[in-house]
Amino acid sequence: MKNHSPLLLVTNDDGITAPGIKALIEVMSEIGTVIVVAPDKPQSAMGHAITINNTLYLNKISKEEDLITQYSCSGTPVDCVKMAVNEILKQKPDLCVSGVNHGSNSSINVIYSGTMSAAVEAGIEGIPAIGFSLLDYDWNADFEPIKKYIKKITLEVLENGLPEGVVLNVNFPKRKENEIKGIKICRQAKALWVEKFDKRETPQGRDYYWLSGTFVNQDKGEDTDEWALENDYISVVPVQFDLTAHHAMQQLNTLKWND
Amino acid sequence: MKNHSPLLLVTNDDGITAPGIKALIEVMSEIGTVIVVAPDKPQSAMGHAITINNTLYLNKISKEEDLITQYSCSGTPVDCVKMAVNEILKQKPDLCVSGVNHGSNSSINVIYSGTMSAAVEAGIEGIPAIGFSLLDYDWNADFEPIKKYIKKITLEVLENGLPEGVVLNVNFPKRKENEIKGIKICRQAKALWVEKFDKRETPQGRDYYWLSGTFVNQDKGEDTDEWALENDYISVVPVQFDLTAHHAMQQLNTLKWND
Q1: Which of A8, A127, A208, B235 makes the best surface tag, with the fewest CB within 10 Å?
Q2: What is the rounded CA–CA span in Å between residue B154 and residue B139?
Q3: Partner-chain residue, chosen from A49, A53, A258, that has the shortest CB–CB distance to B47
Q4: Burial label, B83 (beta-carbon count in 10 A; 0-12, 13-18, 19+)
């Protein structure tokens, strides 16, 4: 690890009042200097959305004497990272951590997740980044069992850095501390949500819908994040933001695009 | 190509009234049966956001006698694809096309793009998909020069399919038809937006911000989408939604996660 106290940017997508981010702030303040910039309201499933057609507000919610500086932001998780880096921080942070999300961001959920999009945005800006999620959607989820693992993973990343163009997607099973078997580097399982729209009627008789769905894991591999989590391991997936399917380029080049 | 008239799902992120989607519908109706499900308002830069904490509305805006069935949806581009597949279409479409976007979705823009997220969502659901974008942000952009290329690319994909887990990100340079040099299969250029927040004051004296930024291409490669577009080619990037950085797994496995 570098000799100075590391500068740690903390964000999330459940909003700055969520117990998950409080747990994360607690662990981070044992490691370095913490700055929090998080959404002022829940922003789950916002993906990599940014605010371009609307104004953004930033509120400093910590007092001058507080040990930890905290801002809430009216935008998305990705907006929070952009505002932190460009408007608040005077130097690039050593690490950006996002979470702890109330609920899974394993497998295909990484695509929809505001938590992970914040980490990916930091990665794009050249900041090592980790998204943490606990497989418990309850607002009163117990984050105690995972705190020592969050600290271990964070210290490991501060010590060794991350490969270029890669951020980590860390998911924790909902288990007691002594039931967790350890940390596994995994690939993203092939999975999807099969939607079932719940159709209802407004008091005025107009149809409307609620999105709901069932998670379907199509992947039987034992090297996936889903397998790890089902078997009481913490899953760590290296996530990239170069979306090019390099393996497909040769096949596509055999087609007659320019005839 | 299959013998039946292909079923083509059309969506976008600029909203159902945008000239770009009208151009796309025009080309698609020369190829097969067209169903349009597109946002009822602009949804640019929404990334892979979905609507889970709010209601969704769907409006059939075409008349019974119209040749093309069109729905507007109150949600994001990804919501549109989910609603089309699960609520509107009785069979899986042969192809989903998204766009034509008013503005670039090349390189890192793919991450923020609602246009591309719609295509990616279709891909996740096992539907071949293409996102089309023109490097012209003008509402009155001229889509005529690119129509024959949209048709060519669409027919090629209907004829040959796409590699599993891959959708196409197609960007067109703002050029006359005879100035376009052809179609190139490319990788996503390494690039980012460097933000500059424009700080203003409300009439009541409260600070607010507008997000704005400068696009920075850090990639000198001649095999990238940015290079192709600057040199008057149409760029086609195969995009994947398995975000695992497989190349980084070995390196990460050398760290001491479980000591």
Answers
A1: A208
A2: 24
A3: A49
A4: buried
Residue A126 gets which letter from DSSP? Answer: T
* Structure tokens given for A230: 């089902």
- Element (H or E) spanning B199, and its range? strand B191-201
Q: What is the predicted pLDDT for the residue at B14?
A: 95
Per-residue confidence of chain A (259 residues) as pLDDT tens digits?
Answer: 456 799 999 999 999 999 999 999 999 999 999 999 999 999 888 888 999 889 999 999 999 999 999 999 999 999 999 999 999 999 999 999 999 999 999 999 999 999 999 999 999 999 999 999 999 999 999 999 999 999 999 999 999 999 999 999 999 999 999 999 999 999 999 999 998 899 999 999 999 999 999 999 999 999 999 999 999 999 999 999 999 999 999 999 999 898 8
Binding residues of B for a divalent metal cation: 13-14, 44, 101
Match 């393996």 to its residue by tokens.
Answer: A247
Domains of chain B plus CATH, in order, are: 7-190+221-253 (3.40.1210.10)
CB contact under 8 A, A47 and B117: yes
- Rounded distance, CA A172 to CA A188, Å? 14
Which residues of A carry a binding-site annotation for a divalent metal cation?
A: 13-14, 44, 101
CA dist A219 → A232, A239, B82, B213 (Å): 18, 18, 22, 40
Q: Do B187 and A244 touch (CB under 8 A)?
A: yes
